[in-house]
Task: inverse folding
């Protein structure tokens, strides 16, 4: 019996060693591209072309960053991304929770049918919408504008409505009825009873939406055609196309484009991971 | 009394419609109308400048029978999906199980694998393009030379363009799938493992006889999600194979179906043709979903 125990313990030690080895190797594979990006972005030209390539920078320089900010309006790209992703997120959080409340707790004609249409739309791939979407935006005269970037993206709200409905549905009716008897308006019920209760869901939805919109590429690519209106991903893509050979500068651009989201991620890790787990509800 | 309650009801209904009005009208204009509009457009020839010309099934017929590039793109996409999905799922499943063990630095490992998920895929592609850079200057080639191999031409050679994109996509998708698997692992009751341990089950025995069967629903779900995501791959292709005015790389070796759609719709402005392509993509996504539904139903029998 004792022998058997020792056997299991030895086995589990070996397993544990394998687990650590595997995870450390994996973590290194994950980290190398990021480290390489950063190292390249502070290398002078001579060291970039040196062989063998090295992770140690002998003469670190900020020249690539200076070039970058001189050649392209990086701060403008960052503002555009922030403004666009921020507005869509604000709208999404507000509008989908309000609609989610109506779908969860109100009875009205056509409710279930409308809700079903929202949910069914989750299955439609964006490629189907993008061509008519472009034509509509063009006819509205919204090409190359903030309106064009923001308003059509607000329409991707089905998932938020679904998520909010699920959570609001589980709030007891008594709470809402009591407020109604006291003469609360529906909007006050939403603002003062529902909203505080679904804060965690909204936080998750907000960060998730922001992340998605911040990284959105295809829509800006299709409707934006002047430099000053580009978002960060689009700006970075164009930068790569134009100055592809200037690796240090392109990597500096990648650092600038990646950094804000990494900071947000480190601050809100818990919510982001929860948000990803929530996408499972979609299935 | 009757009247009052009716009015009250109407009033409350009015409020409900008001609450859903804003998201629904946007949804209607930018999602529902486009859905039907692109269906209509797919039967026309339309270049944005002239008004659409009805051509019946011509677009679909051309796509299926007269367009070698479409079949090239479909072939590439299928290779991409078949390469990326199973490999990505296996690695991320092993990662999730490894992180789920009683280990130190759990959160550190979780965070680092998750990094690419919060990095714009455009930035990821730009970084990897540099890793793949030609000759011996590229970091990856340097590693290969050091390990005694021959440097690879990665994005400059038709054989390696697609695999290059695939390797990067697997790398970038690991963390996302891993989190979904970790969530699934948390739903497996500890008691199951304890019972298996009492019966003397070792690590592998527990993995194959407890973890895998109980994780089946999550595995099916994650597979479907990655099938659908991978089928629509675009950004990676755009960055890694796109040069001024073209997309697809050497001999279109990296052209995928959505990249082809983008090229037709927004570079050549064949909007009718591109709409037909979009409906082809939608049809494939629909098929994947249906197959998944069937598998899910079948797997439910196990419980």
Result:
């Amino acid at each position: 019996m004792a022998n058997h125990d020792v056997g299991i313990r030895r086995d589990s030690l070996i397993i544990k060693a394998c687990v650590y080895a595997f995870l450390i190797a994996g973590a290194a594979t994950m980290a190398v591209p990021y480290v390489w990006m950063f190292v390249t972005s502070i290398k002078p030209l001579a060291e970039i072309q040196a062989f063998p390539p090295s992770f140690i920078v002998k003469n670190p320089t900020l020249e690539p960053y200076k070039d970058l900010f001189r050649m392209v309006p990086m701060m403008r790209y960052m503002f555009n991304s922030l403004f666009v992703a921020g507005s869509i997120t604000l709208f999404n959080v507000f509008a989908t929770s309000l609609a989610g409340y109506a779908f969860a707790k109100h009875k009205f004609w056509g409710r279930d049918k409308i809700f079903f249409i929202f949910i069914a739309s989750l299955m439609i791939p964006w490629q189907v919408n993008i061509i008519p979407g472009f034509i509509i935006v063009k006819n509205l005269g919204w090409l190359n504008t903030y309106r064009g970037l923001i308003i059509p993206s607000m329409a991707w709200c089905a998932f938020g409505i679904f998520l909010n409905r699920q959570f609001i549905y589980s709030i007891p009716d008594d709470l809402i009825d009591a407020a109604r008897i006291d003469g609360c308006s529906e909007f006050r019920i939403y603002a003062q009873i529902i909203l505080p209760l679904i804060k965690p869901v909204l936080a998750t939805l907000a960060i998730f939406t922001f992340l998605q919109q911040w990284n959105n590429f295809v829509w800006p690519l299709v409707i934006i055609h002047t430099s000053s209106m580009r978002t960060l991903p689009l700006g970075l893509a164009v930068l790569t196309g134009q100055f592809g050979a200037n690796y240090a500068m392109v990597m500096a651009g990648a650092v600038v484009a990646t950094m804000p989201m990494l900071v947000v991620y480190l601050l809100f890790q818990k919510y982001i991971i929860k948000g990803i787990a929530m996408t499972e509800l979609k299935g | 009394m009757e009247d009052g309650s009716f009015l009250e009801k109407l009033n409350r209904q009015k409020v409900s419609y008001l609450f859903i009005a804003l998201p629904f009208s946007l949804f209607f204009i930018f999602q529902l109308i486009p859905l039907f509009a692109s269906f209509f457009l797919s039967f026309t020839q339309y270049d944005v400048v002239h008004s659409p010309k009805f051509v019946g099934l011509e677009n679909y017929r051309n796509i299926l029978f007269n367009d070698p590039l479409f079949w090239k793109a479909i072939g590439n996409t299928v290779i991409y999906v078949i390469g990326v999905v199973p490999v990505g799922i296996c690695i991320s499943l092993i990662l999730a199980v490894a992180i789920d063990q009683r280990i130190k630095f759990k959160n550190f490992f979780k965070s680092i694998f998750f990094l690419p998920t919060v990095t714009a895929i455009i930035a990821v592609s730009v970084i990897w393009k540099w890793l793949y850079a030609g000759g011996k200057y590229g970091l990856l080639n340097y590693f290969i030379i050091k390990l005694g191999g021959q440097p690879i031409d990665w994005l400059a050679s038709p054989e390696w363009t697609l695999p290059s994109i695939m390797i990067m996509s697997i790398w970038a998708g690991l963390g996302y799938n891993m989190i979904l698997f970790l969530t699934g692992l948390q739903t497996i009751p500890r008691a199951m493992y304890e019972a298996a341990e009492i019966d003397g089950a070792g690590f592998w025995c527990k993995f194959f006889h407890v973890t895998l069967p109980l994780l089946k629903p999550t595995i099916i779900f994650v597979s479907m999600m990655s099938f659908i995501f991978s089928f629509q791959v675009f950004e990676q292709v755009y960055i890694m194979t796109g040069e001024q005015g073209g997309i697809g790389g050497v001999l279109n070796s990296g052209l995928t179906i959505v990249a082809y759609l983008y090229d037709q719709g927004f570079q050549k402005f064949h909007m009718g043709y591109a709409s037909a392509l979009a409906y082809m993509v939608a049809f494939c996504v629909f098929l994947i979903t249906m197959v998944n539904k069937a598998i899910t139903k079948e797997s439910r029998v196990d419980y």
Notes: DSSP finds twelve helices and two strands in chain B. The radius of gyration of chain B is 25 Å.
